[in-house]
Amino acid sequence: MSNNHYIRIINFYSLLLNLHDFPSDYSPDYILEKWNHWIGKDVMLTNSTVPIESVVQFHRFKDKWKWKSSDLKIYGQIQPIFYFLSGIENMNMRNNFADFEHFGGDITKINCDSRIGLHNLVQRRLDEYLILNEKLITAYIREIKLASILD
């Protein structure tokens, strides 16, 4: 199994397990900090078609954290990340990566450095997820390698 691709998957799911349940509970700064830590500063998502519920949730989120006009830079970065995170319904790897790509994310650009910083309970959930999905992860890494050869 390619170590870099495996680490990218670990980092991706470290972010999801940390934030996907209730992204509106976290401050914009915290979301961006975790995004930069696990995914990387160079991986920015773009706004895409989202359900109206996500738009409403985002406006509530914006109001909750009392954003000012000086926060527009963070607003532009957080909005697609928030839409992506709030759209995660389960930990289905294919769906999660498809959603990430829907927002312009590139799996191969996710941070490939091992990261620390998970709470013990979240780390346990991540370990369980990785064990349960070992065959799927191996197949996905194989697909990534084949796609890179064909490009």
Itemize the secondary structure elements and their pairings.
Blueprint lengths: L2 H17 L8 H11 L13 H13 L7 H15 L6 H10 L17 H13 L1 H17 L1
Helical content (DSSP H or I, runs of 4+): 55-70%
Mean pLDDT: 88
State the major sheet: none
Structural class: mainly alpha
End-to-end C-alpha gap: 20 Å
Q: Helical element count?
A: 7
- H and E string: HHHHHHH
Q: Estimate what percentage of residues fall within beta strands.
A: under 5%
Question: What overall form do the CA principal axes indicate?
Answer: globular
What's the number of extended β-strand segments?
0
What is the subunit arrangement here?
single chain
- What is the count of distinct domains? 1
Query: Stretches where pLDDT falls below 50 for ≥5 residues?
Result: none
Round the Cα radius of gyration to an integer and report it: 16 Å
